Amino acid sequence: MKAIRRFTVRAVIPEALSALEELALNLRWSWHRPTQRLFRAISEEAWQAGHDPIQLLGAVEPARLDELARDQGFVNWANELRDDLRRYIAEPRWYQGLEGAPESVAYFSAEFGVAAALPQYSGGLGILAGDHLKSASDLGIPLIGVGLFYRSGYFKQSISADGWQQESYPVLDPDGLPLSVLRQPDGMAARVSLALPDNRVLYARVWVADVGRVKLLMLDTNIRQNDEDLRSVTDRLYGGGGEHRLLQELLLGIGGVRALDLAVELLGLKRPTVFHTNEGHSGFQGLERISNLIGDGLSFDEALQVVRAGTVFTTHTPVPAGIDRFEVPLMQRYFSTAELLPGVSFEQVLGLGVESQMGGPGNVFNMAVLGLRLGQHANGVAKLHGAVSREMFSPLWPGFDVAEVPITSVTNGVHAPTWVDTTLAALAEEVLGSADTTRVDWNSEALTNAQLWAARNEMRAALVADARRRVRAAHETTGGIAPAWTERVLEPSTLTIGFARRGATYKRLTLMLHDKERLKSILVNPERPVQIVIAGKAHPADDDGKRLIQEIYDFADTPEVRDHIVFLPNYDITMAQTLYPGTDVWLNNPLRPMEACGTSGMKAALNGSLNLSILDGWWDEYFDGENGWAIPSADAAGDAGERDALEANALYDLIEHQIAPLFYERDADDVPAQWLTRVRYVLSTLSPQLSADRMVQQYVTELYSPAHKLAVKVEADSWAAARSLAAWKARIAAEWPRVSVAHVESGGLDSVPQVGDELHLRAHVTLGALTPEDVRVEVVYGHSESGDELSAVRASDLDVEPDAAGLDGAQATVFGGTVKLDRAGSFGYTVRVLPRNELLASPAELGLVASAH
Ligand SMILES: *Cc1c(COP(=O)(O)O)cnc(C)c1O
């Protein structure tokens, strides 16, 4: 069977059922339960085969469709849902009530995890992007997603009999997916092109997915116009190394902006003013926009101001090794191609991202540096990750304290309608009046413990059934017949712990195996048994990660414990949707602080599962002593082995002494009342916080709207402000070596100052050729315990004293002001000069500061 050619024949849908096509083609079905119910009513079996309406419509017998077409009740049902979808797309929502928000936002990401039926994601980053689009749609945000269409997506995982991960790359046929090709008015597929070295050209067509109200554009190089080797640029997600990856990112960034322009024109969309780069992969988008502005007559520096004003960069990794980088000679080969980015030289590109700016090597180009240089607005994805990022990138803002590095944080969230189990949503709707589990009152007496416990049991039982099915299917595909014991794996009433994540080493998949005997005794405890469900993919090139999976797999295969611990192959969105709700406890044990945020625990919490986690990522921010358990981090441990030992033992102790006893403490009706108190608490306090709606609203108010305002300002009057900002920055940079705080006079205090006294300051500042309007002179003060450190830091501006004579005559300008001493204790202060311009988003932005000595 070689070279089988495959294509998808779309079902012919009877005219009366045309609503089904419209509903199947908009991915809103992936989070809209009523629409899912409609498709399941056509054929539950076909639905279970793939959770995919288009596949389902292709799989059911035409006779079944004809039968439904004659069933007026069904036809009406479908039409009502179609009308509901149309209303959902057109009606004003949260965003339409805002003022000063952008008309349109472009959201770039290398992966998007919207549904298992569109497998264009590898893990957390992609699913976050998918959730971002869905919440943007629900909130009415005019967002346009930009990504790539990978012909084989990420890989499909199976495990060999000896526990080794096997990858396969099923080829996707876009015609069998909820996509349509972007077309010109003449019906031809629209195309973008990129100039490559040696006079070659890379072409891509553009697929459009409807994610509710949001359009997602996906570039695809698998077209006839491309040379054979270039067709495979978009073959796989994170498939190849160096050059392949660079080609993908050139296409995503540069091609993405071109595709966006086409889509704006051909689909009549609003032109974005704000560009969000979700992680560094799409950073080249800013270069394409610079090149376009140069075409409009701006200089490189002027264009850079425009691009920066409207760009938001989100970093997702707390470790330098996790950042995307390219060898400079490779970059040079591509960016020296004059037609790639007209008007932009390779040296200019290099200046925006060479890693030596961060203390790294000069022959490496760093996509995070590029992201931060091209975006005036930047953030990490949890509070702790914001702090870690400020530290990691602080060399880019020399002279500033780490706390002042202009990187904020927006903690990730997860899309509740996607991730909350139907059972729980139905319970909320029936008993608490709304299916929106993030808003109902989980502490209400209307909801009895028995009802809540029944729902939790039902979700656990669904996981057990799904796990058995998957374990049996895995045996059948690798070894023929599934052994009888596979029918008995897991048990529907046993305390269930879930653990699923990529096989990255820092996530420590095998920490639980540290003391296998102890783990065994916890699992098979006769009074208080525990079971663990594990899943996760290792990157295809990561043999260490695969070895970890093998260790888990081997342990789970030992007869004593195999009923109590299972590894489920091929972790994906569909599996995850049953896995999180079915667990009682969600385990996460990364090496702190390497988990930027982590979202699987959030999805578990939204279903009333309690987190058991190292205080890393989101859990560091949200753990409050009542909503789960913190595994203490052994930061002081001598080495990695000792650290693992301490943390693993703490993990066992928590399960054995706290979690299992609480779970198995039952009242007369066999209900664990104390446990349910925690479940209610988690559902009511964490659900609203962890929802992607909160996250996306925060992006709008804290990043998109400020970016939009700055972008509008710099673009007005043919970019007048951008031009003057570029000139001003050049002047500031040239003069800054002459700026200094020459002398500070203080007075106004008695020999023993008291709270309420005022400190008078006069700072003599030399400004070179700058004027007092170019700078802000501030006194920075706070507690001072020792050395140069200040804590509880505050700042206030000193004002220019027009007539005061400087110490050194005309050369110094005097700035004066007072500070009220409003706290007792040791006081310290310093005076410093910063560039001042209303178009800066942060005083640290230029990395320039002159402090008193
Ligand atoms: C949520 C999710 C992830 C990411 O989980 P983390 O906790 O961020 O590692 C990965 N894969 C799938 C299928 C998910 O649903």
Task: Provide a short characterization of the protein structure.
The protein contains 26 helices and 29 strands.
List the SSEs and their pairings:
Elements: H1 18-25, H2 33-42, H3 44-50, H4 53-59, H5 62-69, H6 72-90, E1 105-108, E2 112-113, E3 119-120, H7 124-139, E4 143-148, E5 156-159, E6 165-168, E7 180-181, E8 191-196, E9 200-211, E10 214-220, H8 228-231, H9 242-267, E11 274-278, H10 285-295, H11 300-309, E12 311-314, E13 325-327, H12 328-335, H13 346-351, E14 364-366, H14 367-374, E15 377-380, H15 383-392, E16 408-409, H16 416-419, H17 422-432, H18 449-479, E17 495-500, H19 516-523, E18 530-535, H20 543-556, E19 565-568, H21 573-582, E20 585-588, H22 600-605, E21 610-614, H23 617-622, E22 628-631, H24 640-664, H25 673-690, H26 692-735, E23 740-747, E24 758-766, E25 775-783, E26 791-800, E27 812-820, E28 827-835, E29 850-851
Parallel strand pairs: 1-4, 1-11, 4-10, 11-12, 12-15, 15-16, 17-18, 17-20, 18-19, 20-21, 21-22
Antiparallel strand pairs: 2-3, 5-6, 7-9, 8-9, 9-10, 13-14, 23-24, 24-27, 25-26, 25-28, 26-27, 28-29
The protein binds pyridoxal-5'-phosphate (PLP).
Task: Explain what this protein looks like in three dimensions.
InterPro entries: Agluc_phsphrylas, Glyco_trans_35, Glycogen/Maltodextrin_Phosph, Glycogen_phosphorylase_DUF3417, Pyridoxal_P_attach_site. This protein is of the alpha/beta class. It folds into four domains: 15-88, no CATH class; 92-409, Glycogen Phosphorylase B (Rossmann fold), CATH 3.40.50.2000; 420-690, Rossmann fold, CATH 3.40.50; 739-851, Sandwich (Immunoglobulin-like), CATH 2.60.40. Helix content is 39%, strand content 18%. The chain contains 26 helices and 29 strands. The strands form six sheets. Strands 1, 4, 7, 8, 9, 10, 11, 12, 15 and 16 form a ten-stranded mixed sheet that branches. Helix 1 packs parallel to helix 6 (72-90). The model has no long low-confidence stretch (mean pLDDT 94). The structure holds pyridoxal-5'-phosphate. Residues 123-124, 127, 501, 571-573, 576, 598-600, 603 line the site of pyridoxal-5'-phosphate.
